[in-house]
Amino acid sequence: MVCTVQISSSNGNANPNKGSAAALAAEPIPEEFSPVEICGPLSPDVTADEKLRSGNGEKEIVLGKNVRSSCLAITEPEADDEVTGEREAYMASVLAKYRRSLIERTKHHLGYPYNLDFDYGALAQLQMFSINNLGDPFIESNYGVHSRQFEVGVLDWFARLWELEKHEYWGYITNCGTEGNLHGVLVGREVLPDGVLYASRETHYSIFKAARMYRMELVKVDTLISGEIDCADFKQRLLQNKDKPAIVNVNIGTTVKGAIDDLDMVIQTLEETGFTQDRFYIHCDGALFGLMMPFVKRAPKVTFKKPIGSVSVSGHKFVGCPMPCGVQITRIEHINALSRNVEYLASVDATIMGSRNGHAPIFLWYTLNRKGYRGFQKEVQKCLRNAHYLKGCLQSAGISAMLNELSSTVVFERPQDETFVRKWQLACQGNIAHVVVMPNVTIEKLDYFVNELIENRPGWFPDGNVVTPCISNDIGEGNCACLNHNRV
Question: Residues where N6-(pyridoxal phosphate)lysine occurs (predicted)?
């Protein structure tokens, strides 16, 4: 594959925003809104045990310390502020500068799985209302300013996607993807109170958080080089705990490598080790790819026709909701163990948070109606095409890169410049970084990124002599471009 890119001082093509936004983005960004170091120098009383190093150690996070680099202070209004309007003018100025910084940061957004290609102008009319979905989505409470009718419509759509009939499912719109995982694990724990939680080492941290919160016994399972769960190791772990039920987290796209655990192989492994369906519970964490995979040809299906207990996805990722939210679906037979009557609501509650953002279901409903299954299928195909394009560009430039077959997450060698990493908001882990190709990530934006990476890379090595590091342990020998593994 040949990747032709043009280095240019203009980056307009990379800007996903339109109209006057481009002109605003050209103005300097005030210091308080610029990307800066999270931490300054460590104070003398901080020991090595109190700090965590990220990647190559250039950025330090100090435990037990509030270290801030910038702050927009809140001050009391002066007596004559209401008359002069100075405070309103000041706040308007701050917000205008902040908007310009958002435009600039959005232009260089590549490392995190958020779809920034959306327009919800039609929903601005609802901003004046305090919409709160309290308690069970299917039982109306005394609080009347809610959006349950939208919430249930969204839940029905996802239940159809995952092949569960209306009378067989229960679910709700969560406040984030982590809440969906917390709820899925909680349902599993309530169904199997003495169960052991199994999760691969590349599982999202929220599953490990759930284990700590619920004081559950946790077993971490090894992964393959792709990031997928190693079912051979999984089998050995199960055999060590045959006397206890299994609560299993299955990743439908891991956080760093975008790897998809083989759900059928997980189920087969459970059955081969003697776990009947009444002795295991499977939660599927589909934060990003749980919505993409149904539209990928040859991809294995996530469906409730298989013996799974719950599925969760994030609404602010592939769907493109502008605020964090998610969808959690489980079997209705499981939810009675969690439901509690709440008299003052005149409802019951089996959710984690109770109060939920009532605007989120409306945003999700609006997008699902506009795009539908066919619209999402087109966007998925575009993302996969562009991800393969990016991988080809990187490899053509002699940069190690990996892309799992069913994923849009391109993994490559970590840039050796934290300024570059922060500018492009790359997610990094150890020796690797990744770009998550979302619907708003265009070929032009990828060309702009690759050009800048190629242009800056020699400056990260002594005398400009690029030495490609070996990251075969992270992405496999076949994807590594170092001198020992480059087969070109």
Answer: 317
